[in-house]
Amino acid sequence: MTAAKAPARQPHPFQARPWGDRRLEVILGNLLRSGVLLSAAVVLSGACVYLSHHAHEPADYRIFRGEPSEFRTVAGIVHSVFNGRGRGLIQLGLLLLIATPIARVAFSIVGFGIERDRMYVGFTVIVLVILLYSLLGSGLRM
Amino acid sequence: MTILEFTAVVAIVSFVAGLLGSLTGLGGGVVLVPLLTLLFHVDIRYAIGASLVSVIATSSGAAAAYVKEGFSNIRIGMFLEIATTMGALLGAFLATRTPTSALAIIFGAVLLYSAYLSRKPRPLDQRNLPPDPLATRLRMNGSFPDLEGQRSYNVQHVPTGFSLMFGAGALSGMLGIGSGAVKVLAMDQAMRIPFKVSTTTSNFMIGVTAAASAGVYLSRGYVDPGLAMPVMLGVLAGSLFGTRILVKAETKSLRLVFSVVILVLGLQMLYKGFWGKI
Fold first, then answer.
1. I need a surface site. Which of A88, A94, B159, B235 has the fewest CB within 10 A?
2. Which B residues, 71 through 90, put their C-beta within 8 Å of a C-beta on chain A?
3. Are B213 and B91 in contact (CB under 8 A)?
4. Model's pTM, two decimal places?
5. Helix (H, G, I), strand (E, B), or coil: what is residue B50?
6. E strand or H helix at B152
7. What tens digit of pLDDT does each residue of B90-105 get?
């Protein structure tokens, strides 16, 4: 990938935005779609395992109990996947799904960096810090 | 109901919600939580967790298609995401401390507002507004392909839009929805961003915003795999299918039907919330 030479500095009446943005957006869009398809595939395979074991048990979500720790921490989820638990696999897929937009933000930092847009590198870092804080700071620890 | 039946029915309902949401542009997430709580008697906290996950899926799944059209403005999106992610964190923390009846009332109010908004004619796109100094400084002004070639636009009222997007993020984090309704207020009406640009840009933002609160929900045990699985897969399949057939579909009458559904669900949520039945 050749560095886009931030043509923001070459004013043109109909092209106020740098061209690099466009390519960055295409890459990010594809990144997001692959992330979603991957996580959907993991969720689907988890669903097969889960349903093959529990299909005929009664479903009840009327009362909120909160998930056990094996389904709400990264370590617990990974552990339950290795134990062949379908629901662990579903949660792993959902973790991947949550990670997809976060990866997009992280990748944008690189993109804005290539365009030498310091201001937007700064903004993107702020967003990334908020996202990581929510994932790691709120109790979802490794 | 057995788990197999429950999973199948929830997946079908989610598929229809995702399909209608993408065809009408009103988003499927907004009807999911009321449907899960009112029809399937799912605890609203599980419903919010599952809906939030599906919001990430639809937003990210549609992003590639939107990007090709060349409407979205990544700078506006990234700048406003500072507001929406902070709001989403606040919303998620508030949600864990808010009684479920209050959540239902807030949800009902948002649904009524969305129904009202969907019947209102879209404000005319700006033409030839003067550049705003702050928006220029933030390099937000841009252009997009139009019938008459590239059309440029100047973003207005950045601080107002930023504050409103904080509110949109808080609602999204609190209720597990994409908050399209508040986004219209902030980006279309306050910042005067052309409709196509604001719609595609906000789609990009919704996934990031939802990811900010999803971590909190997951770690608090609000995301149940057995429930989130059919919801996420159903909504994702429905919305992807919706974007495929969008060109051929007659969306005007669909929009009317869907907004009536939203209205009815909103009234139901308010009723259940005020009478403490949720």
1. B159
2. 72-75, 78-79, 81-82, 85-86, 88-89
3. yes
4. 0.88
5. helix
6. strand B149-153
7. 999 999 899 999 999 9
